[in-house]
Automatic annotation (TrEMBL):
A GO term, aspect molecular function: thymidine kinase activity
Family: Belongs to the thymidine kinase family.
Compartments it resides in: Cytoplasm
UniProt-annotated binding residues for substrate: 171-174, 179
Gene that this polypeptide is encoded by: tdk
Gene Ontology CC annotation, any one: cytosol
NCBIfam families assigned to the protein according to its UniProt record, in alphabetical order: PRK04296.1-5 (NF003300)
GO biological process: DNA biosynthetic process; thymidine metabolic process
Annotated protein name in UniProt: Thymidine kinase
Subunit and partners: Homotetramer.
Catalytic site: 89 (proton acceptor)
Length: 207
């Protein structure tokens, strides 16, 4: 039975890597997938999904006003049977789009796997995450670790000095240079101005 899944985490937990691995697993078995990605995030080019470790794939970009059920139906009409829809950066979905993805599951019988952040830099839910948490059939936490050694569940936005940023737009596209995943306790400490965080991380040697 098709289901709506929400894989959520703090920043830099490997959400996109997990999405790309899932898409690969389907395709390896001769099954067709559709990757959706918001055009809001242009870091890797519109429609392109790329992970921090170098994996990438071409997806279909969408805007906040797009009807995702209609988009999926057009894809099926054009290319035939679809076995799975995967949505990257799902925190940027609107309430209506989360509902539409639920319709893809319930009406079209196609499983939908959404990957995204749970909360923003102020600890508040994103719109897409709020409704995925409410409506998804399965919730899966992708775990990552805080520099303190505890599990990281929140994301702090920092300036060039490693100090927490408390104001600004909810959406500010950026990677490791702007956001750091931390535990709740560390989020509170940094937010109170009791310390700083070096946002620069040593890359994992791959050779």
């Amino acid at each position: 039975m098709a289901k709506l899944y929400f894989y959520y985490s703090a920043m830099n937990a490997g959400k996109t890597t997990t999405l790309l691995q899932s898409a690969h697993n389907y395709r390896e078995r001769g099954m067709r997938t559709l990757i959706l990605t918001p055009r809001l995030d242009h870091r890797d080019g519109s429609g392109r999904v790329a992970s921090r470790i170098g994996l990438q794939a071409q997806g279909v970009g969408f805007d906040r006003g797009d009807d995702l059920q209609a988009l999926v139906e057009r894809d099926i009409d054009a290319a035939g049977k679809l076995d799975c829809v995967l949505a990257d950066e799902a925190q940027f979905l609107t309430r209506a789009q989360v509902w539409q993805l639920g319709e893809v599951v319930d009406m079209l019988r196609v499983p939908v796997l959404c990957y995204g952040l749970r909360t923003d830099f102020q600890g508040e839910l994103f719109e897409g995450s709020q409704y995925l948490l409410a409506w998804a059939d399965e919730l899966v936490e992708i775990k990552t670790i805080c520099h303190t050694g505890s599990k990281a569940t929140m994301t702090v936005r920092v300036d060039e000095h490693g100090q927490a940023v408390h104001t600004g737009p909810q959406v500010e596209i950026g990677g490791n240079e702007r956001y750091v995943s931390v535990s709740r306790a560390e989020f509170k400490r940094i937010s109170r101005g009791e310390g700083r965080i070096d946002p620069l991380q040593t890359p994992l040697p791959l050779a």
